[in-house]
């Protein structure tokens, strides 16, 4: 079935976008994560059952790889100059010219990672709540409360930092 | 209908397009009475839009060689019987198709930004041909994508066709409707709005008793020069496309050219005749020239509007 190949590429493009958003717009890290996830997917392709949810399978692999990466980085902390990180975070990328985009970027960055993940998976990638719950290994109620907290936190930040921003994009 | 309390979770599910039709209506009723909740839903939608603005650019970056290589290997591993058709072989085409679909699939409620700048008159015809070919390809890909998983095949069901048509018309800024194809055995199951090269588009999905699904993709070309039926085939999906009045149509299905042509003829005569509203039926025999007049029915009132639809494509 040729549609399978197209689906796969669609899902992988989606993975790349999610990885970029998850890793705070750091392109190199995001590419590393996606490559690692795809490598794992190739190695474990036997575990995919035809006809099941390919997208959820891929996102779950990426999630697991990410968790492992975070864990191993935590085990071997790398010395990083805080100023470097800071400047990387606030350097406006080309697509962040609009004030509200910069504010949104910052608001998303400041979310606790567990909330950021849920928000990105749901709002950016359009995953179903139960898919997210299964992928993260948490009850669906947890997904909903994280989603709610993430959205309210961003809402508060955007409202504080520039009340007009929200209205302007509409 | 009895009033059921609307939960916080349902507000999110509403924003995320994860509610079924009945509960959607309940939430809409709630939002009509609760300005604060309506503002929240609105703000959540804006957040989603901002996320797409921030990160959809990633989709337009070509994959790294390593990613492409791994993708190809994975494809080979997962789909041993994947007889990839020739057009797939061009990486740019594959990548572009993926971009289009991820943008389309995400969030359910997002529509493309940016209508294209007008081109010199001399190029217009060539451009229209090109645009239509792109449109047909988008229709084909959207068909492939949204028929691949029944769980997200439509964004809004056809239980209430007025609502469906009103909603999609609002999205597109044009009056669109899904014709009744019951007489040829296809039942409308719903639709979704999608970004296309031409701005916001609408996809209607139909199914017959044999579970065969067809989709009608509607877009709004800049120059609405009437164009005759064209045909394209990508892999196992056949697509007929044409322009009628201010709209471009593409009908896609996993059917033979001949089978699909019969359906395309039915669709053609229906959309030409106009929507089967409560109004008296329009004259079906209007000459083609009259179809070219731009029908700017932007403010098509619709009974019930999801809150997100307060966004207008023209503003973005």
UniProtKB/TrEMBL annotation, chain A:
Residue intervals of the RNA polymerase sigma factor 70 region 4 type domain: 102-153
Single biological process term from Gene Ontology: DNA-templated transcription initiation
A Pfam family annotated for this UniProt entry: PhyR_sigma2
Recorded superkingdom: Bacteria
Signal peptide (residue range): none
Residue ranges occupied by any PhyR sigma2 domain in the UniProt entry: 9-63
InterPro entries xrefs: PhyR_sigma2, RNA_pol_sigma-70-like, RNA_pol_sigma-70_dom, RNA_pol_sigma70_r4_t2, RNA_pol_sigma_r2, RNA_pol_sigma_r3/r4-like, WH-like_DNA-bd_sf
UniProt keyword Transcription regulation, yes or no: yes
One Gene Ontology molecular-function label: sigma factor activity
Keywords: Sigma factor, Transcription, Transcription regulation
Keyword Nucleotidyltransferase: no
NCBIfam families found in the cross-reference section: sigma70-ECF
PANTHER family assigned to the protein according to its UniProt record, in alphabetical order: RNA POLYMERASE ECF-TYPE SIGMA FACTO, RNA POLYMERASE SIGMA FACTOR RFAY-RELATED
Family: Belongs to the sigma-70 factor family. ECF subfamily.
Protein name per UniProt: Sigma-70 family RNA polymerase sigma factor
UniProtKB/TrEMBL annotation, chain B:
Biased composition (Low complexity): 282-301
Region of interest (Disordered), residue spans: 270-316
Superkingdom to which the source organism belongs: Bacteria
Protein name as catalogued: Anti-sigma factor
Organism per entry: Azospirillum doebereinerae
């Amino acid at each position: 079935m040729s549609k399978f190949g197209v689906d796969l590429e669609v899902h992988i493009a989606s993975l790349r976008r999610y990885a970029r958003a998850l890793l705070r717009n750091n392109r190199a890290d995001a590419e590393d994560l996606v490559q690692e996830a795809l490598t794992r997917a190739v190695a474990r392709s036997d575990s995919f059952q035809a006809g099941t949810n390919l997208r959820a399978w891929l996102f779950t692999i990426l999630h697991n790889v990410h968790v492992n990466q975070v864990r191993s980085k935590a085990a071997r902390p790398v010395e990083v100059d805080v100023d470097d990180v800071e400047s990387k975070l606030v350097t406006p990328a080309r697509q962040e010219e609009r004030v509200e985009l910069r504010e949104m970027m910052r608001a998303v960055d400041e979310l606790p990672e567990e909330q950021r993940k849920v928000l990105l998976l749901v709002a950016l990638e359009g995953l179903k709540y139960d898919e997210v719950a299964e992928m993260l290994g948490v009850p669906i109620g947890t997904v909903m409360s994280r989603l709610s907290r993430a959205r309210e936190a961003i809402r508060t930040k955007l409202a504080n930092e520039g009340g007009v921003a929200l209205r302007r994009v509409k | 209908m009895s009033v059921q309390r609307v939960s916080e979770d349902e507000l999110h599910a509403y924003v995320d397009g994860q509610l079924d039709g009945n509960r959607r209506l309940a939430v809409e009723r709630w939002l009509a009475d609760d300005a604060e909740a309506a503002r929240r839903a609105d703000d959540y939608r804006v957040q989603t839009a901002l996320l797409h603005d921030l990160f959809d650019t990633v989709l337009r970056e070509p994959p790294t060689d390593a990613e492409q290589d791994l993708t190809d290997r994975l494809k080979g591993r997962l789909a041993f019987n994947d007889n990839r058709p020739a057009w797939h072989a061009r990486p740019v085409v594959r990548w572009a198709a993926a971009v289009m679909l991820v943008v389309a699939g995400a969030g359910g409620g997002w529509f493309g930004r940016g209508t294209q700048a007008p081109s010199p008159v001399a190029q217009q015809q060539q451009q229209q041909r090109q645009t239509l070919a792109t449109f047909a390809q988008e229709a084909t890909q959207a068909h492939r994508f949204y028929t691949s998983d029944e769980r997200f095949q439509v964004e809004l069901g056809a239980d209430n066709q007025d609502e469906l048509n009103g909603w999609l018309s609002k999205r597109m800024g044009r009056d669109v409707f899904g014709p009744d194809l019951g007489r040829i055995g296809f039942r409308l199951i719903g639709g979704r709005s999608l970004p296309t090269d031409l701005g916001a588009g609408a996809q209607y999905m139909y199914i017959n008793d044999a579970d065969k699904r067809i989709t009608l993709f509607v877009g709004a070309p800049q120059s609405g020069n009437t164009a005759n039926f064209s045909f394209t085939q990508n892999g196992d999906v056949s697509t007929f496309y044409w322009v009628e009045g201010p709209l471009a149509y593409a009908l896609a299905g996993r059917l033979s050219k001949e089978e699909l042509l019969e359906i395309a003829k039915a669709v053609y005569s229906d959309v030409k005749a106009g929507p089967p509203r409560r109004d008296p039926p329009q004259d079906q025999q209007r000459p083609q020239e009259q179809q070219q007049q731009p029908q700017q029915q932007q403010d098509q009132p619709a009974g019930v509007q999801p809150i997100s639809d307060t966004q207008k494509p023209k503003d973005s």
